[in-house]
Amino acid sequence: MFSFTVGFGSLRFRSVMAFQRVFFAILFVVTILGNASAQETPSPPSIGKQPKWCAMEVQEVIPYRRRSGSRMDCRRRCTWNTFCCEFNVIPVYTTAYREVSHLEWKCCDDSPAPCPYETLSVDVPYKGIRLFADEYPVPPLPYEYDALEPYIDEKTARVHHLGHHAGYTRKMNAALKKWRDEVGPGVGLQSNSILHILENLDQIPDKHRTAIRNNGGGFVNHAIYWATMSPRGESEPPRLPEATLATEIIANFHNFSNFQEQFTNTAKTLFGSGYVWLSRNPREQTLIIHTTANQDSPISTGLRPLLVIDIWEHAYYLKHQNKRPDHIQDWWALVDWGQVKALSDWWAAYDAGHDEL
Amino acid sequence: MLSCVKLTQRVASHPGLMAAAGTRLKHTLPDLPYDYGALEPTISAEIMQLHHSKHHATYVNNLNVAEEKLAEAQAKGDVTTEIALGPALKFNGGGHLNHSIFWTNLSPNGGGEPQGEVLEAINRDFGSFENLKKKMSAASVAVQGSGWGWLGYDKENNRLSIAACANQDPLQATTGLVPLLGIDVWEHAYYLQYKNVRPDYVNAIWNVVNWENINERFLAAKK
């Protein structure tokens, strides 16, 4: 926006009015032009002051039907001279209430810029990564801990989420705080979302980079891992990608089973700790299978990750011990292609600079 | 008393002898000097069994396979394949070397304080055993992903040094230090018992560290 200060000095009233009319006409035209050019190139979200979000636990009381007891129902079955009852047990239900809590993002009171929305729900694990926040909560799983049985056992899901993922989240928050306290607020890279920070790893000061790379990576990588899996019913048919994604996979890998084989072999032969990804290269609009070591993220090399398998031993050791191929096979059963598509669309919206989440 | 197996191994590990015989040495899984359950409660029998009979065995097998392929490639003069085999040789060769050292570094009669000449070196280079323990534990816990924490001997400067290596990178080939004590911090080394709490495992392993073996290695390295 443009601002002018003009001193009128000692002009007489009539000429002042005329001058004012011309002045405002010019101001009006310039504002329109300014706005027009702003719309042609939407301001990228990474420049300038970022809206700041704070995660809140919101308590909600929801009703549910609960069996409170039963009553005996007597159906008279009588002959002309005897009275007898056929007893039936009828269950009795009442409405009960329970308190559930869920996470929501709210605009922080000290946000340096206005937020596009009042609140946002943390319904999908990765959505929070593009928000600038002082502290990120561990994103809750989109399903119960035992819901991925028998493919991923409940124990593994618990330790993986509450031990490892939570640990990375805590340490990432600590590393971000250390950096931000040192540099102070402002419009530098530190006052931005973890997603944007990971995209610009080399701009993080040396002393903070390793901690943010490892723990920020762990935070984001696990969010995508959980999000692209979903519980599987007993007699569910094989899961396959939907139309547009299927077409893309065929275009890049010849056919789906070829893609699956290549992905599986890459996962079997990865050495040490790391991940295997299906990512989109946004510049070339191709899909690639690739690996990252430790907690490195494809985001840091400009890729858009769509699907991932965690090959760290902690992802499968309790159930499969050293038998990694069994883990890979179990994981394929849980891949939710609908979620993969949703993630793909989410990246497209992010790259187009849209505010909606 | 040398068993037949040990005798064969001793003969087989003499490079000159085997070269003269014209056969290529095949690596074998070394026996554990103690039972799988001997290091309880520090390291569970289940972990020891998987670690030795599955993980280490796989490194040995894959190393043999890689060396076969290397020999073939060398015979054909196929340098591209030779180079491509590099990573596999490093992973599996390193894995075999590292674990072979590791099993000897531990003992059911281990723990306690260091002994012998290595104790003097520890006091000289770290101030105290407690300090060494603190620093080496920290370095081992801090390894990102999979790797090893090492106490090594720097021959050039005649001092002990703590190092950490990623994956199965062998200490001597990577840093030049002679390995004395290694702590395996791959998750398979502790997960079934300690889950994600690596610090508990690293603190506990000092209870089974075999100082006799470490002292032997130190004396051998100094020669």
UniProtKB/TrEMBL annotation, chain A:
EC class name:
oxidoreductase
Report the leader peptide range. Answer: 1-38
In terms of Pfam families, this protein maps to: Sod_Fe_C, Sod_Fe_N
Annotated GO molecular function terms are: metal ion binding; superoxide dismutase activity
Chain ranges of the Manganese/iron superoxide dismutase N-terminal domain: 136-230
Which EC number applies?
Answer: 1.15.1.1
Q: Does the keyword Signal apply?
A: yes
Question: What keywords are annotated for this sequence in UniProt?
Answer: Manganese, Metal-binding, Oxidoreductase, Signal
Query: Which Gene Ontology terms of cellular component type are present?
Result: mitochondrial matrix
Task: Please write the reaction equations for the catalytic activity of this protein.
Answer: 2 superoxide + 2 H(+) = H2O2 + O2
What subcellular compartments does it reside in?
Answer: Mitochondrion matrix
**Record domain Manganese/iron superoxide dismutase C-terminal: where:** 242-341
Does Cytoplasm show up as a keyword for this record? no
Which InterPro entries does the entry mention? Mn/Fe_SOD, Mn/Fe_SOD_BS, Mn/Fe_SOD_C, Mn/Fe_SOD_N, Mn/Fe_SOD_N_sf, SOD_C_sf
Sequence similarity: Belongs to the iron/manganese superoxide dismutase family.
Q: What does this protein do?
A: Destroys superoxide anion radicals which are normally produced within the cells and which are toxic to biological systems.
Subunit field text = Homotetramer.
What is this protein's record name? Answer: Superoxide dismutase [Mn], mitochondrial
Query: Which organism does this record belong to?
Result: Branchiostoma belcheri
UniProtKB/TrEMBL annotation, chain B:
Gene Ontology CC terms: mitochondrial matrix
Q: Does the keyword Endoplasmic reticulum apply?
A: no
Molecular function terms from GO: manganese ion binding; superoxide dismutase activity
Mind listing the UniProt keywords for this protein, alphabetically? Manganese, Metal-binding, Mitochondrion, Oxidoreductase
What EC identifiers does the entry list?
1.15.1.1
Please give the catalytic activity noted in the UniProt record: 2 superoxide + 2 H(+) = H2O2 + O2
Q: Which residues bind Mn(2+)?
A: 51, 99, 184, 188
Q: Which residues form the Manganese/iron superoxide dismutase N-terminal domain?
A: 26-107
Q: Where in the cell is it found?
A: Mitochondrion matrix
Q: Which cofactor does it need?
A: Mn(2+)
* Domain (Manganese/iron superoxide dismutase C-terminal): residue spans on this chain: 114-217
* Keyword flag Mitochondrion: yes
The highest taxon in the source lineage is Eukaryota
Give the quaternary structure. Homotetramer.
Say which family it is in. Belongs to the iron/manganese superoxide dismutase family.
Function noted in UniProt: Destroys radicals which are normally produced within the cells and which are toxic to biological systems.
Record's protein name: Superoxide dismutase
